[in-house]
Amino acid sequence: MAFKTDIQIAREASKRPIQEIGQKLGISSDDLLPYGHDKAKVSQSFINSVQDRIDGKLILVTAINPTPAGEGKTTTTVGLGDGLNRIGKNAAVCIREASLGPNFGMKGGAAGGGYAQIVPMEEMNLHFTGDFHAITSAHNLLSAMIDNHIYWGNALEIDLRRVVWRRVVDMNDRALRQITASLGGISNGFPREAGFDITVASEVMAILCLAKDLGDLQKRLGDMIVAYTRERKPIYARDIKADGAMTVLLKDAMQPNLVQTLENNPAFVHGGPFANIAHGCNSVIATTTALKLADYVVTEAGFGADLGAEKFLNIKCRKAGLAPSCVVVVATVRAMKMNGGVAKVDLGAENVSAVQAGCPNLGRHIENLKSFGVPVVVAINHFVTDTDAEVQAVKDYVASQGSEAVLSRHWELGSEGSADLATKVVEVIEKGEANFAPIYPDEMSLADKINTIATKIYRADAAVMDQKILNQLKDWEDQGYGDLPVCMAKTQYSFTTDPERRGAPTGFNIPVREVRLSAGAGFVVAICGEIMTMPGLPRVPSAENIRLNDNGDVEGLF
After folding, report:
1. Is 332 among the residues known to form the active site?
2. Which of 220, 269, 338, 354 has its CA 20 to 30 A from that of 40?
């Protein structure tokens, strides 16, 4: 049986004018700033006008540790949103925007898949409304102003060896990871080592996604540490006097983007921070706005539950005053088999024992999420190769963990295939058993926060930090940063720092290699193992297959 590609399905969509989508949420045409016919930004004045409304119910979609077999977290998020609307609920979806780097690399887009997609798919996965370009420009403006300040006399006495603000570009380009800047003589400045990160790893991206409004945005931008003096005194973006101009560049990017699913249901797509070096969730302003307009809001967090969901719950919810009513964990039979030791090429053959052997990875995520006081539903994202016995093995295992697994066929059938999952989620929410709380208090020491996540979420024996790191954390506490949450940066593929250790390993430590203070975003980053903030392209990048056809349509996006 030949299946249509995601882009073929998206191109055949019967889209409605974006004003009609806005009307479903009570947003008038005057409060939408259209970008063409099928996407628009929601005005800040409208957002301000709905703040006294009661919030709807928040549903977080997360997943097991990602595997090459694929899990389908965004697809499930979109499918669940459509399913909720199908069963008569007023629901909206909130997801992140797509980065150009992975689109042209290996990962592909971020609009869902099959018959559970957000459209317009091409625009969403390319330039969209220009938010990422604005973030890139604002970030690099600050970079230029730092070097310009040094060139014109360096009144702040910045130590050129301690400029910590790197440049960014929204592309996978390993050649830019480490560079030498300002070569070419006196007129070009003072030569120094520098480098690029990908735009989604920028602290500006994290700030845009955590800021409540433009005033909060400018304050956070000003609070970013960009360099140090020889005496180790921090230099802030506000010292460079860049925060005002950066805010101007980000003014429109701060407004959430409204688009639609294939079934013409509302979806907010806004922001896209990395889920390792940052918190990996869509913007606070999009989520909180959706909660004022819909009875149910379905959002997702990046990577597996040990990274994205942990940060959603410990960072985003803590800082934005959010409390999810239910968490949906996405799993696939294929991924369970891979966690159970089956090679990717052999995943098509029935193997119930391998499914059972791989389920402890899922079980650990369920247990972790319940420790936050939220009920958990497992969504088994259906693949055509799944057998009834394999699906039942997952259901039986999840039942033994005190939760329920529901087979969802949204990729193939859209909301018809996700209606059962939506019904189960509503049933769980209506029981009112959610009693959300982060797993550590603000007043806990930074080192203890790191250790809490390492032991309670990853199930490590300990987080290993040398004295230099412990001293740095203590210095930040003395400077008034001790109440910040921590953002753990490690591989997404394992509970450990070894991407090859699948399943639910025990008997390991989490080595903390470095800590960084994201003072503007409002968290401390603990880098564990090897983390890449500028990806490279694979041997055969997706870009090789992306082109315009004879009709001028895009081909090759997925």
Report:
1. no
2. 220
Query: Which CATH code, of 3.20.20.80, 3.40.350.10, 3.30.1510.10, 3.40.50.300, is assigned to 133-247?
Result: 3.30.1510.10
Would you call 411 a catalytic residue per the annotation? yes
Residue range 446-528 forms a domain whose CATH class is alpha beta
pLDDT in tens, 126-154: 999 999 999 999 999 999 999 999 999 99
Tokens for 201, please give them.
């790893």
Q: How far is C-alpha 238 from the geometric centre of its chain's CA atoms? A: 27
- The angle at the Cα of 395, spanning 390 to 397, to the nearest 5 degrees, equals 95
508 in catalytic set: no
96 is catalytic: yes
Both tokens assigned to 48: 């301000």
Distance CA 51, CA 289 (A): 8
What angle (nearest 5°) sits at the alpha carbon of residue 208, between those of residues 206 and 214? 150
End-to-end Cα spacing for the chain: 19
Catalytic position from the list 107, 177, 238, 456: 107
Look at the alpha carbons of 557, 252, 209, 375 in this order and tell me if their dihedral is positive or negative.
Answer: negative
**Among residues 15, 41, 89, 96, which one is catalytic?**
96
Annotation says 501 is catalytic: no
Q: What is the CATH number of domain 54-97+260-430?
A: 3.40.50.300
Q: Rounded to whole angstroms, how far apart are CA atoms 169 and 239?
A: 24
Active-site residue, 74 included: no
Task: Give the pLDDT score at 13.
Answer: 84
**Token match 């010292």: residue?**
239
